[in-house]
Amino acid sequence: MSRVLLPLLAALASSLPATAAAQATTPSLSSPTASGQVAAAAPAAGTAPYAANTWHGSLLQRGREVPVGLNLRGNGAELWLPDQGIRGVPVPVVRNAAGTLTIRLDHWPGQPQLQLARSGEAAVLRGTFRQGGFSSPLTLWPGAVTLPPRPQEPRGPLPYRSQEVTVWGEGAVALRGTLTLPPGPGPFPAALLLSGSGPQDRDSTLHGHRPFLVLADWLTRRGFVVLRLDDRGTGASDGDLYSAHYRDLAGDVQAATTFLRRHDSVRPDAVGLIGHSEGGSLAALGAQALRPAPAFMVLLGSPAVPGRELLDLQLRTQLSAQGLSSAEIEARATLQAQALQNHRVGELQVPLPSSEIEQAWLYSRAFVRSPYLQDFLTYDPRPALQASQVPTLALLGARDLQVPPAAGAARMRELLQAPGSEVHELSGLNHLLQPARTGLPQEYAAIPTTLDPAALDLLGRWLQSTLAQR
C-alpha cells in the first residue's frame, strides 16, 4: 500500500531492497503452516544432489533480518522472499561444473539472484545475494523459512467469491488483477483500490505485509465489490510503469472505474476510489474526467503538495527522526535536490534514508529520467483536490514520516470542500496506518498489524453514512 508509498528516495539510496512491491505471476506452490513455517516441497525422484532440499536464511537490512527461503526441486526451485511478495515462485536453477547454483528471477524488480554452493564445513549453502546494485553474503541452513505473523490476512474458506480479471487501461494496456464479490446477486457498491508510488502488485505487498489483500477482504465481507490490480509492468499486468505519464495512469483509473460500473453485480451509482499515498493523487486526477463523478473517494496517507516538495519534507522529517544534526540534514537535502534536478544519481556517495527501502533497485539514471518520476515531481495535487465535488475521506497517520503532517493533514483540511468530506489525523499511526513507535519505514515489517482496526472502523462508518445519502 503505496503501497507505497514513495520509492523515490530509495531511487537515490544504495541499499538493498527489503521488499520490491511486485506480485508473482505464478501462484505460490507452498503455503504457510499454522506455525508460520512454509511446508517443504516434495522430493523429486532421480534428481541432482541438491534436490529435495529446503533451506532458509536471512539478510541483514538496516538492522533487521530479511527472510530468504529456497525449496530445491531437481532442475528448479521455489524462491521465498516474503518481504517482496515472492512466496514459492518457481525459478530455474543453473549448476556449473563446480557445483555452484545460480537462481535468478528475471521478471522482478532488480532481478534478484542467488549464487550458492554447499559448504564443506557444515550442511549449509553459502554464497551471494544480488538485487539491482546491491550485493550481500548469504548463508542458508536446512529448514523452512518462517513467515512473520500477519493475523489480519484472510484464511480460507472465504465467505465471498474471487475472480481473476483483465482491465484494458489507457492505450489498451492489459491490467490484470482480482475482483472480490460478496455472496448473492447484488447489485453491490464497489471500490477500486489504487496503490502508492512505484511498481506495486495487486496486494500492495511490502515488508511482508499485503495491505490491499487485507483491505479487500475487509470491504468484501461488508458488502462491497472490490477491484485491485497489478500496476503496469508488475505481476501479471502488461506495460511499463516508468515510461507512463500521469495522464496514462489517470486513464487507467477511469478504465477500471468503467469496468466496475458495467459489471452485473455492481451498483453503477455507488462506485468509489480508495487510494493509498500516490494512489490518492491519481484518484483525484482520474476522477476529474469521470462522468458521472465517483460516489466517494478515500485518501489513505495521500500527499497534498507537489512531489518535489514532498520529497524534501519527507527526507528532512526522516533524518530528524533518526537524530541527524541540522547541518547533516541540510547537506543531504541539498544532495537530493541536486540529483533530482541534474538527473545524476551517481553523485550521492552517502546513503539517504529510504522512504521505500524495498525499492533501492531503482538506483539508476534511467529511473531519474523517466516520464513517471518527472510527472511525480511536477504534479501538484492541490487543484484537483480543491475542485473535487466528490465526498472524500482523508485518513493520515500522525506518525507518518513519508507524507508528514505538513504535506498531508494540514493541507487536506484546507483543500477538501465537497459536502460530506472529512479529514482525520490518526494518533500513533504511520504511513501504512499501522500503530507505530517512531513511524520510520524500518519499523513496518516488525509490526504484526497490517491496518489499524480503529482506522478500518472509521472508514466503514464513513462509507456507510456516505452511501446512505445516495
Can you offer a commentary on this structure?
The protein is an alpha/beta fold. It folds into 2 domains: 110 residues; 247 residues, Alpha/Beta hydrolase fold, catalytic domain (Rossmann fold, 3-Layer(aba) Sandwich), CATH 3.40.50. It has an 8-stranded antiparallel β-barrel. An 8-stranded mixed beta sheet has the order 9-10-12-11-13-14-15-16, sandwiched between helices. Helix 2 packs across helix 3, helix 4 runs antiparallel to helix 5 and helix 4 packs across helix 7. The protein starts with 52 loop residues before the first strand and ends with a helix.
Short description:
This protein has 470 residues and is an alpha/beta fold. It is built from ten helices and 16 strands.
What are the key terms here?
470 residues; alpha/beta; Rossmann fold; 2 domains; eight-stranded antiparallel beta barrel; eight-stranded mixed beta sheet; 16 strands; 24% strand
